Amino acid sequence: MHRVLFTLAVLLMLLLIACSTGAETDTTPTPVADTATVQPQPSPREQPAAIPSEEATRTATMQTTVVPVEETTTASASSPTEEPQQATATKAASRTEFDRIAEDASEIRGLGIREDIREDYLTREQLRERLQKQLDEEFKPADAEADERALSAFGLIPENLDLRKLYLDLYTEQIAGFYDTETENMYVISTGKRLNALGELTYAHEVTHALQDQHYDLDRLSKPYENKNDDTLLSISALVEGDAVALQNEYLISKPALIGRIQDAFEEEQISSEKLGSAPPIISESLLFPYDAGARFVTALRRDGGWRSVDAAYKDPPKSTEQILHPEKYTDRDAPTAVTIPDLGAVLGDGWAKLETNLFGEFQTRVLLEGQLDDSLAREAAAGWDGDGFVLWGKGEQDVVAWQTVWDSEDDAEQFAEALREYDEARFDTSFEDVDGTLTLTADGQAATIRRTGTRVSYALAPSEEIAPQVLDALDR
Hints:
Layout: E1 4-8, H1 13-21, E2 30-34, E3 59-62, E4 65-69, H2 86-89, H3 97-109, E5 118-122, H4 124-138, H5 141-153, H6 163-174, E6 175-180, E7 185-189, H7 197-216, H8 218-222, H9 230-253, H10 257-269, H11 274-278, H12 281-315, H13 321-325, H14 327-331, H15 345-348, E8 353-358, H16 361-370, H17 375-382, E9 385-395, E10 398-407, H18 410-428, E11 433-435, E12 438-443, E13 446-453, E14 456-462, H19 467-476
Parallel strand pairs: 1-3, 5-7
Antiparallel strand pairs: 1-6, 2-4, 3-6, 6-7, 8-9, 9-10, 10-14, 11-12, 12-13, 13-14
């Protein structure tokens, strides 16, 4: 399935402050709010149950992301590739505002414009209509129900949450622009078909996606993982969005007069983040991850080799959010361990059907634990992640979840097992019992079991104390 790269219209206040002072207080990237893009995740169904799909339209820019700006980078400091820039000269005659932005972005990024870039405006009402149509085509009620049941079983969203409506409301609120990888068209959200300062920065971000697509074929990068590996999809999205955020920040640095105009445009458009702020963390944080963590990842790549290092990453993209969170693991090619969940049909018996299978990865495992644990403890417990996989089976209104994780060391596995224990004890408000190394908890008509074997931690949640141990044993065979 093709993807829409969305750009989230962003709060740029911190960016304005950072750029106006021109001072760095430490050696880490200065946090800056910017216009983001939500992407390689696509429509909700292309993502993991736990990942919000930005595919509600294609690759979009959002309105409320905080991203780091690179301390030492300026437009003149960029390291263009050998791609000739003459292609941009062919458009110089028209010099429309869109053309000017595209040419400037192309020069900063060092990627020539190989094909004409088509763009148009959409009102927020037209955007919502488009999103609704795409949801109807690509995120069917049955897909939404499976995602809802999986996320609810893990305690990540409340029961009876309507994901289709949440995505529709959230993207309608947050998308500032998007690039459609299928039609190769770009859109800016505007009520008066005019390009204000916020729209200009959004367009610079989205032009980056068009250039990425022309040079590296974005769909090719993600298609092998669609509906199979949402952690890898999220990591690819982080590369794509982090690249666009880095370009966007350099674009802004090269045009100081634009900064003040952006603040005026932000106030004029009265951008809201109500839906984003009230969304469950697994939705909102996964949506913002590609911009924030992706920008930091791209900054780390550029410290070693400028834009050429980013270009090289498209030929060998990251495989996990672990590699995004810890760039040295990407550099060292610390690949995740594949986890295969066995067929539980024989264990569960007649009437049960497999509804969902995917994985969380380090980032979403951390978000899960943060739902009940202190953030620092959750980060530490998730940091030793080396691989995972989960499956959801259903029978009527009954659900069975089986989840197996692999860790870098036995100590890491033990730390996660303890964190998972605390997580379930907090959400079910009761305690596990330890019987011969297997932890068992019963509450609210459900039974949860946890077992660590070496560097593996197995988890099962079932509607009875009889089923849960059987599922756990099947995982550990």
